[in-house]
Amino acid sequence: MPACDDWSACAATPVLRARAEMLARIRAFFAAAGVMEVETPILSHAGATDPALASLALSDDRSGGGSDADRRLFLQTSPEFPMKRLLASGSGPIYQICKVFRGEERGRRHHPEFSLLEWYRPGMDYGQLIDEVADLVRAALQRPTLPMERIRYRDLFREVLDLDPFTAPLQTLRAAAVTAEIPDADRLDLERDAWLDLLLTQCLEPRLGRSGMGFLCDYSPSQAALARIRPGGEPPDDQAVAERFELYIDGVELANGFHELTDAAEQGARFARDCAERRRLGLTEIPPDTRLLAALEAGMPASSGVALGLDRLLMIAVGATHIDQVLAFPIERA
Fold first, then answer.
1. Low-confidence ranges of the chain (pLDDT < 50)
2. Taking the model in full, what pTM does it have?
3. What does the H/E/C string look like for 161-223?
4. Regarding beta strands 36-37 and 94-101, do their DSSP bridges make them parallel or antiparallel, or are they unpaired?
5. Would you tell me which CATH number, out of the four given (3.30.2130.30, 3.40.50.300, 3.30.930.10, 2.40.128.50), belongs to the domain 1-145+301-334?
6. Which strands, in side-by-side order, build the sheet including 57-59?
């Protein structure tokens, strides 16, 4: 990265202008589609229980009384939970452009504070949402003929690594990582999902979206996150799959989408498993969002939703190679 004066913007003025114009196109896209823009709190009493995410927290010293945990507020890693509460309140289709925060993330494509576009479509299945994501990206990038393809998670592992991610034993996953010469693979001691993530990021992701938009879909159920599980037994699935997708362009992950889980009991069980895993790993305890569970219990409509990283999308739009090139003031100069 070229050095810039401590006080000055790192992103060049044409890049700042490109961001503003891209945001205007995104808002015009949703206005034409009849999707309402909303705002939800950045701070919350609940955080992200996902062990892969590091929530940033602050203490509200003015609240008075109570324990440190009672005064703790979390900066959102995503607006997902409050937006789902809006869906349960009858909002209809909604979108939000906001800042989100994740600790322990800094690098060429990572920044602890970044811009996210998230939207939800009641009554739309996730196959239809994939088509809408593709249309949104074409509009945002002003590339109306940008092609797209869908690649099934299981098929990708089978075709490239000659293994079935749904059934391969742990030693097979380790052997694949060693064969691929992933650094330190022969010394790593990982859980099954961690091996799958390592193989995906190191061996498979760089191949995705090289000729347009690549949508990786139908994940292993263990990789469901907040997605619904589709039962197996119906072609082409002999096993259950998570109705989840990720979007890649030029090997860069841009979006993560789900056919959303609406079952309060299952969501509560996933929170509990996350919390147990965090304890096992010695990570900070994060209180689950009980208000989300109450909203699901009250009845959230069947919906599909997606989160898309706007800084990375802008990097593709302007040909940037480092996220700092599209940020006015990176964290070191904030």
1. none
2. 0.92
3. HCCCCCCCCHHHHHHHHHHCCCCCHHHCCCCHHHHHHHHHHHHHHHHCCCCCEEEEEEECHHH
4. parallel
5. 3.30.930.10
6. 43-44, 72-75, 57-59
